[in-house]
Amino acid sequence: MRKIKKGDQVVVLSGRDKGRQGVVVGLLPGGQVLVENINRVKRHTRPNPQANHPGGIVEKDLPLSISKVALWNPGTKKADRVGIKQLADGRKVRFFKSNGEMIDA
Fold first, then answer.
1. Topology of domain 9-96, per CATH?
2. Closest by alpha carbon to 15, among 75, 73, 70?
């Protein structure tokens, strides 16, 4: 079970976008995460008439290391660490380490 999943609200801990929040769009192999509107770059692309791509400046999101983001805790209004515990019925759930509140209830 992963500590950060697709659709989670996260906060960037370091780098150019430090302190900004976003939603996880996808997880990539190698411990990288794609966050919506975070780590945006401008790419100058050449037109390709065969593929029907116009040229110009395209903005896109680049992946971040998963260690640079933390889950947003709405209860404490801060970034928080995540733990995983197993319930009595055998299910594994994620919880916030600061207040013990379960994420996947």
1. SH3 type barrels. (2.30.30)
2. 70
